[in-house]
Amino acid sequence: MRHRVKTKSFHRRKEQREALFVNLAKAMIEHGRITTTVEKAKALRPFVEKLVTLAKKQTIASRRLLNARLKDEKAATKLFKDIAPLFANRNGGYTRIYKLATKRVGDGGEKAIIEFVEFPEK
Length: 122
Description:
The structure is a single chain. By secondary structure, this protein is α+β, with helices and mostly antiparallel strands. The chain has a single domain, classed as CATH 3.90.1030.10. About 50% of the residues lie in helices and about 15% in strands. The protein has four helices and three strands. A three-stranded antiparallel β-sheet has the order 1-3-2. A hairpin with a 6-residue loop joins strand 2 and strand 3 (about 110-115). The longest helix is centred in the middle third of the chain and has 19 residues, at about 40-55. It is globular. The termini are far apart.
């Protein structure tokens, strides 16, 4: 039974799953959008949105928490200075997920794009 189980395990231990989310979040912060499976995108969405909400507070404590959670000062600084101010007037819903028509070649997994709603174009 799956009572009170909030996230998928992805057949990984907790530490491996957290490392997966951290790496996906860092790639998303750096590039603005990433292509992954639908399940990983749906599981990544709350993780990233909590980071953006934390970065919107613009305090030293929130900056230190971002550094601790992302384990990368460069990504935390970009989220804190560049991305969070874009969402100053938004109360949530910082990301969107597009399902792609193509499937992954190896196992036929459904692919999706997860991106920030507002991201500065290069």
